[in-house]
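Lesson 9: reading folded outputs for more than one chain in a single document. The general rule is that every protein is listed as its sequence immediately followed by its structure tokens, and records are never interleaved. Here is the first one.
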Amino acid sequence: MTSISHIVLVSWKSGKAIRAEELVRPAIRGFVGTIPGVLAVVEGHSSSPEGLEDDYDYGFIVTFATAQARDAYLNDPSHRPVADAIGAAAQRIVVFDI
């Protein structure tokens, strides 16, 4: 089976970044070992010298063992508060799975 990389990019609403990241960053890092099928998590701000972030402030990648693990994560109790916090504080979100 092929692993799935779940890529999320977030552009925060004005004044929402600090509080939102205080909530979501530790929770996202905690997905490994908490949510079945999560193999790895990478999260943070862009370090690209290209400057092509298109105003996205924050991003993370969750690597899943299988597509089924990714699908189950969407309703996992550890994921829901993170998704809700991002949704409430984000101006724009891109989710791209490969």
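And here is the second record, again sequence then tokens.
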Amino acid sequence: MKRPNINEMTDLKETLYRNLATGEIGIREATRQMRKILGMTQKDYAQKIADISPRILSEFENGVGNPTLATLEKIASPFGLKITFLPPESWRINVGG
């Protein structure tokens, strides 16, 4: 998988954060996007970044896994993201529009 250049990476991260903030994507899709921003396969991201089993990451991204909170934190922390409770969608902030 090809890693984006620095400008593309910055744009992709901004889009990721915006889409998370507005609720346009969920945690599974965010995980997939974070991995792709780094140009990594599931196996590489799981082993080299999150220090988890590739099977756990694959199952989570594909909607069949139910990882622990600690595992979710390992997946999210490289991007400075925190696992937290969110208010109902009707209470979320609409960024930029």
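What the second record shows: Residues 73 and 83 are 6 Å apart (CA to CA).
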